[in-house]
Amino acid sequence: MISAIEKDIVNLLEKGDKKAITLLYENYADALYGVIKKVIAEDDIAQDVLQETFVKVWKYSKKYDASKAKLFTWLYRIAYNTSIDKVRSLKNKTEKEVQIETSTVYKITSGELNQDVLDIQKHLSSLDVKYQIVINALFFEGMTQQEASDELDIPLGTIKSRLKIGLRELKKIYNP
User: Fold this and answer.
1) Average pLDDT over the chain, rounded to an integer
2) Is the overall model pTM greater than 0.70, yes or no?
3) In a designed cystine with 147, which of 79, 110, 140, 143 is the match (CB 3.0 to 4.6 A)?
4) Whole-angstrom Cα distance, residue 147 to residue 137?
């Protein structure tokens, strides 16, 4: 049996009346917060999820069908699913964070650098100018091959050929 307040809320949701959210919050926020807290222990995150839940409820209010589920069941599912989504999102975020403490990126010593290639720009000048331009654009200006093609107004195939030939010529200098 549907209560009078639930009936009022459903009618307001169907009409898109913003009073529905106020009534939903007053009548269901504590119960939904309890659902969220079973999944998420941290209060700040749980509060955010509660807010996201009400945003979703409002966004999907026209899709609520009283013949399929009671209002609280529908709200419960949205709150629970939003909680699970948040947990997954946080898990993915922490897995993707770079761990600086364990990184070896910044621990390169000068002895580990190949001293022979530090003078590459000096040797680059010994190449034909057309190869210099392409290698400079790709390696020292950070352009992609397509960007270099567009910027230098040279066909992409020519960029690739000049890169290959230029690198072959540099290889002859470093590996005689």
Assistant:
1) 82
2) no
3) 143
4) 9
